[in-house]
Amino acid sequence: MKTTNVKAFGTKAADAPLNEMTIDRREVTPKDLEIAILYCGVCHSDLHFAKNDWGMTSYPVVPGHEIVGRVTQVGSEISRYKVGDVVAVGCLVDSCRTCNSCEQDLEQYCLNGWTGTYGGYDKHLDQPTHGGYSQKIVVDEYFVLKVPANLDLAAVAPLLCAGITTWSPLRHWNVSKGSKVAVVGLGGLGHMAIKFAKALGAEVTLFSRSTNKEKDALDLGADAVVISTDATQMASVLGKFDVIIDTVPYIHDVNPYVNTLAISGTLVLVGYLGPIDPFLNSVPMIMGRRSVAASLIGGIAETQEMLDFCGENNIVSEIEMIKMQDINEAYERMLKSDVRYRFVIDMASLK
Ligand code: NAP
Ligand code: ZN
Ligand code: ZN
Predict the structure, then answer these.
(1) Tell me, what CATH number does 121's domain have?
(2) Beta-bridge mates of residue 290
């Protein structure tokens, strides 16, 4: 198959900084769109992947799965999109589309393995997939989303991962008017969780480690902030929440948060990937029918539902725009939780 060279930013090793490189994009097949990338959000998963935190990275890796761009070519069988349309691509670029999960619009749980926007396997090229820190991407139209016309395009980009990853569990666990929701950690995912929970009618509390982000959380729509390092404040919310969305990226003690669940409440892990340590105490779970669950991004139909909801309710991410060349510094700041609340790369900087 013919390929096109495009400029990208990626890394060749866990301990190497990201640098400019050239990657191949496949030629447009009948079902593909070629998209010139305008903006790409910077997710903490990009950093985990670049640094091989999950032990599954093969190099080189070009991260980026919060993509907004403009269609530059359409395959011969494309009818939903035309050249010039503004579109979006999230974390998924393929799945089997026939398994039980795919048939239920749950492509993220494809039983035959979904294809990640980066770090996946491009069956057309027989090569790893490469993400949105690049000038162009070629994607099957099934995995391309429509962007509501009224929203700021750069601030839409983070909806494609931070947005859908928090939207999906809020919907699955039926958050609605009057629900009591807590969010652990105010970063990219956390700030979207607050906005969505609030827009769905919930009473929203943020758990944060310090008072630094208290005012921001209230401005974003939280009704209260609980400092997780303050035992008195933690005691004041015991047994309170119907749903907790835990976005903490690293290993941490989840038991103090489980204790703040109401009877039949659910804590949903969306951040940390790995064994729970030091332990998970079943006592508050058994004594209150409480659950600890987890959730992965969202399916394509649900992502479109979320984008449409954002269009109707004027919801976007809070962003700090960066140049592609600033990505290593952005990762350093992300490691210090110094992001308010999502970096977005202006891809025009990669000339
Ligand atoms: P982020 O912007 O860096 O935000 C994470 C927040 O967690 C920080 O702002 C901080 O909030 C808190 N935090 C950070 N380190 C912590 C620690 N050691 N202990 C306690 N709290 C800590 O990250 P993000 O982009 O929102 O991503 C969060 C996690 O979700 C990452 O692990 C990412 O890989 C994962 N993720 C999962 C999915 C999925 O499908 N499940 C999708 C996307 C991302 P405070 O300063 O308020 O404490
Ligand atoms: Zn992500
Ligand atoms: Zn499938």
Answers:
(1) 3.90.180.10
(2) none
